[in-house]
Amino acid sequence: MVGILGGGQLARMLAEAATPLGVHVRVLAAPGDEGAREVVPDTVVGDPLDPDDVARFEAGVDVLTIDHENVDHETLASLEAAGSAVRPGVGTLRFSDKAHQRRAFASGGIPVPEFVVVDPVASVPGAQEVAVAFASGSGPEVVAKASRGGYDGRAVWMLGADQVGPFVAAYEGSPLVFEPKLDLRCELAVLVARNPSGEVRTWPVLETVQVDGMCDEVVFPAPVEDHVAQRAREIASDVAELTGAVGVLAVELFVLGDDEVLVNEIAPRVHNSGHLTIEGSSTSQFEQHLRAILDWPLGPTGMSSPAVAMSNVVGSGEIDPRTRQALALAGVPEAHVHLYGKAPRDRRKVGHVTVLGDERGSTRQRAAMAAELLSGDRVR
Fold it and tell me: Are residues 293 and 342 both part of a single domain?
């Protein structure tokens, strides 16, 4: 039995992939409109951050995995020490801390942007001095990222050099990572899977399109040359080895104008950038994650169509996409619609749409059209 900490859409889609494999899934979900509850009969209501709830839950499963990385590392470390199969392990999960990630990658030879880490809570004057000095040599704007807790553009700030000092002085939170604002050619994602036996597979390189810091679209093929794609896949494999990943790991990448490829950040789990693999790949990221954490042989990762595009369905006002499926499918009959059972609100991901086609541009347009029909007045 596979136990999943957290009951969001990733747990939901893991459970959907488990059914044809004959794998029993149990979910520990917090109260509320967690999407997995609709499709997982064996759902336990509890707090994935509560050590007692987690320990009781883990006692009834064979392998423990995650829906999201905001989990109690110390609790999981104690379970690992007692011999439990926690996959990904705590050592990998610690890489969700961006400060730890940047430092470890830089020392391990993984290419990352220039950066500096400061901790304003520990030392305001010193942090200000270091951050201001970095910003003064990094161009007119820098990017500040909270090392923990940020997602979908949250806890990320674009700052002019003259704003850095006051920002650091007023900031209260986890340590900050400062980086230059880079002139990007595009952004990529590579999904990589690794099992305890050491087998590694990567999917073809995908382009990710961000809107206000949130992933909006994912498109295959990526608009890069073969040597850039090969470099991206090599980096992703290196990241999986360095982090000791077990399961699926998403590696998000920057491509600069000179074709240099840098790691933006990683997610030690199945990820939004891989949702299009459900219909678009020989093995979806969700099936592959289950295979990997169970230490089964990994599946093939080739794409099943010349072009594949995924568009997120994001909450817009009070419009509920769950009332608009027929409208979307009338407009784009070939669309594969996935709704997560979540009440819509602004900037909340409540579903996604995938379209397969013969040509990248038209396939992307069709996926975007279906997502717009679902979300109502959303403007891309």
Answer: yes
Contact status, residue 312 vs residue 352, Cβ threshold 8 Å: yes
**How many H helices and E strands in the chain?**
12, 18
Contact status, residue 278 vs residue 179, Cβ threshold 8 Å:
no
Q: Is the pLDDT of residue 235 over 60?
A: yes
How much is the average pLDDT of 231-247?
Answer: 97
Q: Where are the beta strands (DSSP E) in the chain?
A: 2-5, 25-29, 43-45, 63-66, 85-86, 116-118, 141-146, 156-160, 176-180, 184-194, 200-202, 206-211, 214-220, 247-256, 261-267, 307-314, 336-339, 349-357
Residue located via tokens 């990994």: 298
Q: What is the CATH number of the domain that holds 162?
A: 3.30.1490.20
Q: Is the pTM of this model over 0.90?
A: yes
pLDDT tens digits for 6-55? 999 999 999 999 999 999 999 999 987 678 989 999 999 999 999 999 99
Q: Are residues 174 and 189 in the same domain?
A: no
Identify residue 321 by its one-letter amino acid code: P
Identify the domain boundary among 180, 206, 232: 180
| 268 Cβ contact list (under 8 Å, min separation 6) | 69, 88, 92, 93, 95, 96, 243, 245, 247, 249
